[in-house]
């Protein structure tokens, strides 16, 4: 079984477009949307309508899990992972729109037993102001593991369910969840397979709101590194493989 988890916070119509993209390529049997305290709340009726618009696979299920207040991306991912039942789990951002259909390509290497952790490398977005944080995360992972990743912050991933559920409690670090996933995966000897995929997502630009968002992302990456160094490297915590 393939489970897809989409954490969503105030994603609006872009979320429903993402679900329509998933419905167009029904490679999944379980879809879990985790509403991370959105205002207005995500509509379960709209989710069902979007996800089944094009007739998803018979027997597939769509579920909405609500967090009462905004707890951050990492908590939403952790919640969805622990709620899921799939042997393979796909993690997707809510703002991909109909390009979410490309996620099927993330699953193929898992099903072929070519990898246990697959990460999408998105096309470069000139002027998005995000490169410095990507390089910082990549260097931090490299210093701790000896592996350099091209897309350490990519939210589009497919991972074997067994190790991912072991790692889930460590992901409650907001936007640092992807950095933590990289570290735990490499610690357990699972090298992420990076594949180029032209997902489309919301561009932040260089507005004050966008810069504030990036500052919070940077803070959370630092949280993830601190938590990893303190609890994993020193004490072997969080599902030591």
TrEMBL record:
InterPro entries: Glyco_trans_2-like (IPR001173), Glycosyltransferase_2 (IPR050256), Nucleotide-diphossugar_trans (IPR029044). It is an enzyme of class 2 (transferase). Residues 3-135 form the Glycosyltransferase 2-like domain. Its EC number is 2.4.1.266. Its cofactor is Mg(2+). Coiled coil: none annotated. Pfam families: Glycos_transf_2. PANTHER family: GLUCOSYL-3-PHOSPHOGLYCERATE SYNTHASE, UNDECAPRENYL-PHOSPHATE 4-DEOXY-4-FORMAMIDO-L-ARABINOSE TRANSFERASE-RELATED. This is Glucosyl-3-phosphoglycerate synthase. It comes from Hydrogenibacillus schlegelii (Bacillus schlegelii).
